[in-house]
Amino acid sequence: MASRLPVILCGRTTAIGKPVSEALLPEYEVIHFFQTNEEIQAELPALLAGRKPQAAASNDIGSHDYTRPARAVIFGRGYQMEEIEKFRKAAAGHFSEPIAWVISDPANVQSGGPPSRRGMRIR
Question: Which domain of life is it from (predicted)?
């Protein structure tokens, strides 16, 4: 079996982050889960460059296995395009391989259960 694709997940709460990270298995491995814009701004460029974050993880979501750089950044519905564009600009030039930027569609809200991959778009 091919190894899991390492990804970074960004969401506002661990109550959503945990089931989403589990739903992404087995194809994707969440290596880090960000909850705040400040964490993303400070640590995302290093993670995309294949380095460990400077600060210890603020939650227990994800493997925290930084031996392989992330290949995608996945944003939950709590993020606005303006915020995501700011993160992309801050991370520009910090990675050598293409990165998929996956953005959840805020119009596609599900009731009950963890969010699925349906309603995401890749930029």
Answer: Eukaryota
- Token pair belonging to 37: 């814009």
Beta bridge partners of 122: 102
As given in the structure block, the two tokens for residue 31 are 């290596």
Q: Note whether 68 and 96 are within 8 A (CB).
A: no
pLDDT in tens, 31-67: 999 999 999 999 999 999 989 999 888 899 999 999 9
Please give the Cα distance from 79 to 11 (Å, whole number).
8
Specify the pTM.
Answer: 0.85
> Which amino acid is present at 91?
A
Domain ranges of the chain: 5-122
